[in-house]
């Protein structure tokens, strides 16, 4: 283990400890909420990254999995009184099933075509849910605020539990991501992404591994959807199935660095920070200034750091190693 | 439906055709940019919005009808397109597809914010447009602004097709879109071609905006209503195919209107998207796209 | 060079974060009473949101006596019980997004230390933002979201001044029956044409239910996708259904597009009965001009009621002077909402949330101290104003004229809706 790797490990551990202790040190609810938003966004980015980054299948329709998660747990809770914890698993399972169903035909498509197909599927599902009376259609579902506590995953007094659930989900997603990346499946992912034709000629069943990726990605994304429903206690198609949400999920990973383990976490941190601060500072004027700055920053980052923030850091790392005459790290191996 | 008549059906088909032609005009710009340089432009709806505002200000400040200022609007949007290419797109040509999406998406938000900042978030309409009212033809009612707009769309799309296939510059542009490297070897300056594609693409959206401005409300977010449908048309017609986008625009317009009429308006977007999905799955290169 | 740019970019980002952190902790004056107001200030509804902001600011200026106001407006009294303290409105932008609404509510409560909240126009955003207020125990006054379940949630801190959809829809049917009697016509065959979000979905549900109960038939029911590029298929279906009354719920953009499509396709049912929102937005008539005429709309307010209530003209003149637009049903309700909050805070004589909540509960503002045509403002145990009423207005000569209830009407209803050709 060289010095840089050691530093990185220590840094990682420090970040984890700070994260675990965060709500104990910072009690300001806005900051806790801000942190929850970052964790939730990061979790979605990491989940998206399994499919979009590792397996190289860019989805612009992830809101559909998110929505399935939110709707499944909410319908089960509102109509059958089922615990959202079980609802979360049920939502994940249904989302995975749906993912396999759409993955099977769509994985034949390449690049833009796959992205467009996912965009269309998500939009179709949004229309169908909007007109589906059983799940309250356009009206949306209210979840009761009563029964605060861990059993019902509703916390009215303090948001700290939401923080830990979001953190737990993020760690779970990182773990799944890591396991997939390090296992033999991860090697196949890289093969699929970098040279699909060669991979196919080696007899790798591309479709099967892509299906693993989309199922895992959908499951985790749906879990995030359940957390959203339990946190806001109201869902409607516009808030959990919107096309803009799909794009935001992809943006988080892209901004941070696609195909890196922690890239989406960094991306979430930066994107949510920009979003929240520009709105808080400039949004109240009603002049559109917040959008100008938010959009401007995105353009600038895309222009000057096309590999995302992780790409930038990776570049610095390589430069540092080169100066130190240390081992060369191939690009895309994460920060 | 108690009073379904043949006139009603014919009327629906004609209305679908008219809106479909507008979709086509918006989409040809998008497909041109995509065809030449493989970039999906999320900010295309905002070019449309800028075209609408240019017409609006021409009409309310200088009392010039959008139809008179149309060439000027097209020129202005051409300049905007070239500018966007020079300032932003040129730098991300080699970047992965994802960061390109990211850049144009950021631009979309930026332009919407800018429009709200400069012109307020109000809904506006062009005052005293030259074309107003409607004409009745064989019992069919055709709004004059809609009719003018769809005729304009046919002319512009046809003109663009002629330019790409029958002029030197246009053929050079087409050559770049088919094989960039070969075109460069033939002495075509691909940088210039890219800028040209962005200019023409934006100008098409601008013209669509000018034509729409006579009957569609103008506001900073107006592009959002059209962008998804424009993507659908581009894919359906085949990425990069102007003729394909033209026919696909009409098909989308018809499916939307007829589907809405027979199946139910709530599902009209879902129907269009389902068709889109089917085409993607069974004929991914679209109606007339290059294989 | 490239690297320099990147460094600069990241540096700028850091500065932004630091600056905002600094802003969040800025010191504030002691003698101001901070009220949070959450509206859609960017996004598709920004036009409406900015107008609501202006109305709220006008109300605050009157309470603070920056503008002298003659008459006995509830808000005109200022804050004598708090030694003439000033209220300060802190605005939040919810962008039409329920999660952003909740985030803004929490920020305003915990960072800006507002003593009460007002908002949010969109019913679905009001739903999430008011939950935050409920969690923190901060009064939330809702002035203009009409979704009925909002006051059925058993919240302790939620108050709504405006009547809700149940009442509005009931009004529709009362109105139709009254017109049937007065004009000797039949208005039993309905077409429902509502947009597909919370508001339109819920309105449809209530309309269908009451139609059955009261002996009306629904010939066509369309929940259309909001923000459409065209409405041809919708209008064709409506034409095919050939209704006696078209009942429509649309926000601004759709309201404008639908009227243009009616004109284009020559659709003119005997009665077009709209559900406020887009049809009472100031930009509706500014955009459509005479093509906006003859639509009937349920309303909570109309300028022509000034003959009966002089306060209306006075307040409207102020709005017109400051912002160049007349008040409308949306902005008048927000104006009234801020006034009601100010009245309660003054009576509470304190900025303690519990004291304000108690004062709100005891609110009893008589009809002649508000600019709404209501019997007054008094909240029931659910926090719903029990004295609110709806009116029906009709656009005549590009002006909103009150046509129902008949006893306060300023104009007779034009029936039927004239064919487009003869206009």
From TrEMBL, chain B:
InterPro entries: ABC_transp_permease, BCAA_transport_permease. One of its GO terms (cellular component) is plasma membrane. The chain crosses the membrane at residues 12-35, 70-89, 101-119, 195-219, 226-252, 258-282. Its main location: membrane. It is a multi-pass membrane protein. One of its GO terms (molecular function) is transmembrane transporter activity. One of its GO terms (biological process) is amino acid transport. It holds the Pfam family BPD_transp_2. It is found in: Cell membrane. The keyword Transmembrane helix applies. Keywords: Amino-acid transport, Cell membrane, Membrane, Transmembrane, Transmembrane helix, Transport. Belongs to the binding-protein-dependent transport system permease family. LivHM subfamily. This is Amino acid ABC transporter permease.
UniProtKB/TrEMBL annotation, chain C:
The keyword Signal applies. GO terms for biological process: amino acid transport. It comes from the Bacteria. Pfam families: Peripla_BP_6 (PF13458). Residues 1-29 form the signal peptide. Residues 32-384 form the Leucine-binding protein domain. Keywords: Amino-acid transport, Signal, Transport. Belongs to the leucine-binding protein family. This is Branched-chain amino acid ABC transporter substrate-binding protein. It comes from Telmatospirillum siberiense.
């Amino acid at each position: 283990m060289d010095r840089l790797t050691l530093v990185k490990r220590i840094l990682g551990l420090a970040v984890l400890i700070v994260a675990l202790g965060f709500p104990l040190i910072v009690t300001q609810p806005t900051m806790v909420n801000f942190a929850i938003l970052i964790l939730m966004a990061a979790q979605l980015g990491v989940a998206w990254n399994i499919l979009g980054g590792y397996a190289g299948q860019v989805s612009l329709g992830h809101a559909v999995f998110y929505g399935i998660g939110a709707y499944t747990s909410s319908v089960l809770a509102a109509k059958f009184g089922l615990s959202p914890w079980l609802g979360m698993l049920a939502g994940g399972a249904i989302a995975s099933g749906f993912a396999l169903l759409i993955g099977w035909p769509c994985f034949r498509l390449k690049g833009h075509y796959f992205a467009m197909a996912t965009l269309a599927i998500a939009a179709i599902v949004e229309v169908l849910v909007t007109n589906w009376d059983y799940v309250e259609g356009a009206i949306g579902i209210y979840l009761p605020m009563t029964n605060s506590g861990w059993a019902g995953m509703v916390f009215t007094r303090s948001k700290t539990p939401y923080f830990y659930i979001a953190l737990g989900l993020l760690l779970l997603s990182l773990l799944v991501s890591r396991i997939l990346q390090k296992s033999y499946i991860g090697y196949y992912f890289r093969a699929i992404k970098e040279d699909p034709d060669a991979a196919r000629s080696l007899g790798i069943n591309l479709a099967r591994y892509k299906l693993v990726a989309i199922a895992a990605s959908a499951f985790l994304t749906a879990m995030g959807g359940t957390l959203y429903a339990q946190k806001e206690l109201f869902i409607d198609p516009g808030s959990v199935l919107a096309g803009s949400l799909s794009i935001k999920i992809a943006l988080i990973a892209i901004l941070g660095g696609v195909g890196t383990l922690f890239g989406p976490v960094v991306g979430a941190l930066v994107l949510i920070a920009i979003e929240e601060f520009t709105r808080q500072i400039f949004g109240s004027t009603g002049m559109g200034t917040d959008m100008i700055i938010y959009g401007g920053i995105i353009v600038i980052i895309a222009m000057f750091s096309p590999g995302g923030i992780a790409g930038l850091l990776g570049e610095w790392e390589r430069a540092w190693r080169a100066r130190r005459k240390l081992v060369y790290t191939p690009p895309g191996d994460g920060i | 439906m108690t009073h379904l008549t043949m006139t009603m059906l014919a009327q629906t088909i004609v209305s679908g055709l008219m809106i479909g032609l507008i979709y086509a005009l918006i989409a040809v710009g998008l497909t041109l940019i995509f065809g030449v340089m493989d970039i999906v432009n999320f900010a295309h709806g905002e070019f449309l919005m800028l075209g609408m505002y240019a017409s609006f200000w021409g009409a309310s400040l200088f009392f010039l009808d959008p139809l008179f200022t149309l060439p000027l609007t097209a020129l202005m949007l051409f300049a905007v397109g070239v500018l966007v290419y020079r300032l932003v797109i040129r730098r991300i040509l080699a970047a992965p597809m994802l960061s390109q999406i990211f850049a144009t998406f950021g631009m979309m938000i930026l332009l919407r914010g800018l429009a709200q900042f400069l012109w307020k978030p109000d809904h506006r309409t062009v005052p005293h447009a030259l074309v107003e009212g409607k004409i009745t033809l064989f019992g069919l009612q055709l709004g004059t602004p809609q009719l003018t707009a769809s005729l304009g769309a046919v002319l512009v799309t046809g003109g663009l097709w002629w330019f790409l296939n029958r002029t030197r510059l246009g053929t050079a542009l087409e050559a770049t879109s088919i094989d960039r490297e070969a075109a460069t070897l033939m002495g075509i300056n691909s940088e210039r071609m890219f800028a040209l594609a962005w200019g023409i693409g934006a100008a098409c959206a601008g013209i669509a905006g000018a034509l729409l401005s006579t009957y569609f409300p103008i506001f900073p977010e107006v592009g959002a209503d059209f962008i998804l449908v424009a993507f659908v048309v581009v894919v359906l017609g085949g990425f990069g195919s102007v003729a394909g986008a033209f026919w696909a625009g009409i098909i989308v317009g018809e499916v939307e209107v007829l589907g809405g009429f027979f199946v139910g308006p709530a599902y009209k977007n879902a129907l269009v998207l389902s068709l889109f999905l089917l085409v993607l799955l069974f004929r991914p290169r679209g109606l007339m796209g290059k294989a | 060079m490239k690297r320099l740019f990147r460094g600069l970019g990241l540096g700028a980002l850091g500065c932004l974060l630091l600056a905002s952190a600094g802003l969040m902790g800025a010191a504030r004056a002691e003698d101001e009473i901070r009220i949070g107001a959450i509206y859609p200030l960017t996004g598709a509804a920004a036009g409406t949101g900015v107008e609501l902001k202006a109305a709220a600011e006008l109300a605050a200026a009157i309470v603070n006596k920056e503008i002298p106001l003659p008459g006995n407006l509830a808000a005109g009294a200022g804050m004598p019980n708090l030694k003439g303290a000033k209220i300060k409105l802190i605005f939040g932008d919810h962008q039409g997004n329920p999660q952003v609404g909740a985030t803004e509510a929490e920020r305003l409560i915990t960072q800006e230390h507002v003593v009460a909240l007002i908002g949010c126009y969109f019913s679905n955003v009001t739903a999430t933002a008011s939950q935050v207020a409920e969690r923190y125990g901060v009064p939330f006054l809702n002035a203009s979201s009409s979704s009925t379940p909002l006051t059925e949630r058993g919240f302790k801190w939620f108050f709504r001044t405006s009547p809700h959809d149940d009442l509005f829809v009931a009004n529709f049917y009362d109105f139709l029956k009254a017109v049937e009697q007065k004009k000797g016509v039949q208005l039993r065959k309905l077409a429902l044409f509502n947009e597909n979000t919370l508001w339109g979905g819920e309105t449809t549900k209530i309309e269908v239910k009451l139609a059955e109960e009261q002996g009306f038939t629904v010939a066509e029911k369309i929940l259309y996708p909001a923000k459409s590029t065209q409405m041809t298929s919708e209008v064709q279906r409506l034409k095919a259904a050939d209704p006696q009354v078209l009942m429509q719920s649309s926000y601004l953009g759709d309201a404008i597009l639908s009227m243009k499509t009616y004109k284009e396709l020559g659709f003119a049912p005997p009665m077009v009965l709209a559900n406020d929102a887009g049809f009472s937005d100031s930009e509706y008539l500014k955009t459509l001009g005479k093509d906006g005429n003859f639509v009937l709309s349920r309303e909570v307010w109309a300028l022509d009621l000034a003959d009966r209530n002089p306060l209306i003209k006075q307040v409207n003149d102020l709005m017109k002077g400051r912002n160049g637009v007349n008040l409308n049903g949306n902005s008048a309700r927000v104006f009234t909402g801020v006034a009601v909050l100010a009245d309660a805070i003054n009576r509470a004589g304190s900025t303690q949330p519990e004291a304000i909540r108690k004062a709100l509960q005891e609110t009893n503002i008589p009809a002649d101290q508000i600019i709404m045509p209501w019997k007054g403002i008094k909240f029931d145990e659910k926090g719903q104003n029990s004295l609110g009423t709806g009116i029906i207005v009709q656009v005549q000569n590009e002006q909103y004229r009150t046509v129902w209830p008949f006893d306060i009407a300023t104009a007779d209803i034009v029936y039927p809706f004239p064919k487009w050709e003869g206009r």
